[in-house]
Amino acid sequence: MPYGDTTRQVVGDVARVTAVETVERQVAASLAVPRFRVLLGSLFAAAAAMLLAVVGLLGVISHTVSRRTHELGVRRALGATGMEIVGLVVRHGMTLAALGIALGVFLAWGLTRLLASLLYEVEPTDPVTFAAVTLLLALVAAVAAYLPARRAMRIDPLEALQAD
Q: 79 φ, ψ to 5°?
């Protein structure tokens, strides 16, 4: 065997040795695209869920305020301040949101057993995730309840009483 052939063989052997990857690295590389798709899907699902929560709560509270216009007008006529009206409406909205969040967390906690087999390197009952989602939903609910409450604060008592 000529001298050049063994050099090429040694260089080829070294090149093959440096191209060796760990199994973890190969698994990570093969899962990169599916993980990215799952991340995008999760972000879209979270955004859609937040949008539905805001629209739903905003609609319910707006409907409640429109149905209670007479009552809120009477409260204003009897001396309730605008901030008291806002507090009343926001408290009602947050009560509804708290019930919904509590029911959702309870159901999610119970359904995690079904999803546990689909998860990879993620705890199905991660308390940090549950707490973060709960706080985010509560914040979104507070904003969604505040918007109709501002409208309720501007109710003119005279117009509300004449409406009936």
A: 110, 5
For 121, counting Cβ atoms within 10 Å of its Cβ (0-12 exposed, 13-18 middle, 19+ buried), the class is exposed
Sequence-ordered list of residues with C-beta below 8 angstroms from that of 89, at least 6 positions apart, any chain: 61, 64, 65, 145, 148, 149, 152
Query: Which pLDDT tens digit goes with each residue over 13-28?
Result: 666 655 567 778 888 7
Instruction: State whether residue 25 is helix, strand or coil.
Output: helix
d(CA 137, CA 77) in angstroms, rounded, equals 34
Torsion angles phi and psi, residue 130, rounded to 5: -60, -45
Q: Give the whole-angstrom CA distance, residue 68 versus residue 85.
A: 11
pTM for this entry: 0.68
- Over 135-163, what HEC string results? HHHHHHHHHHHHHHHHHHHCCCHHHHHHC
| Tokens 């052939």 belong to residue | 5
Sign of torsion over alpha carbons 43, 44, 45, 50? positive
The burial of 40, by beta-carbon neighbours within 10 Å (0-12 exposed, 13-18 middle, 19 or more buried), is given as exposed
Q: How far apart are CA 11 and CA 1, in angstroms?
A: 15
